Each structure stands twice: as C-alpha cells, then as structure tokens.
Amino acid sequence: MQIKKACGLKRIFKHVEVNGVPRKALIDTGSNLNLIRSDEYFRRGAPKVNSNKTTLSDLGGAEVLTLGSIKVEMDIDNHKYTAVVHIVPEQAMEMKFLL
C-alpha cells in the first residue's frame, strides 16, 4: 500500500498535538483509521505499543500489515480526544501522520 498522491486534489493538513507533541497531520475524512509511520513513531520515543496487528488494504488491493497500535491523547483546535493510532512501515505512506 502506498499513499502518495491524491489525484490532483489539494491535501488538507492540520497542526495538532499528540501526547503533548506538536505534529503536522494529513486530514483524511474518508479514512476509518489514524496512521503514523514507524520512523515517526520511533523518533517520538516509541510509547508502549499494543501488539494487535491489522492488515490494511488500499483501493488498488495492495495490503500492508501494521506494526501494532498506540493509544494517544490528541488536541485539535483546543478539543481533546483519545484515539488509537496504527503504526505502519515507513514505506507504506509518504506523510508522517494521518488522521
């Protein structure tokens, strides 16, 4: 699975805080999951991971196995949320964080 291009559509990015750390996230209103690239996960201190792995597939049918998931506290526009974020291999997507 490779999330690279949005068919010429403008991508929507948002500055958010995840566990108190500022991040720039791609907002994907069609996604059912929150994703973080593995390199970004490790760069941010690698919080304890839930070892439940999930197989994801894209519209073309390509599949990627997540490395697990983490529960995070997010602050978006001064609204606080608890969310599950799935960790994907670095090569699985271009952006670092997808909401």
TrEMBL record:
The source's domain of life comes to Eukaryota
Single GO term (MF): aspartic-type endopeptidase activity
Give GO terms for biological process.
proteolysis
- Pfam families registered for this protein in UniProt: Asp_protease_2 (PF13650)
Q: PROSITE patterns, alphabetically?
A: ASP_PROTEASE
* InterPro entries attached to this UniProt entry: Aspartic_peptidase_AS, Peptidase_aspartic_dom_sf
The name on file for this protein is Uncharacterized protein
Species whose genome carries this gene? Popillia japonica (Japanese beetle)
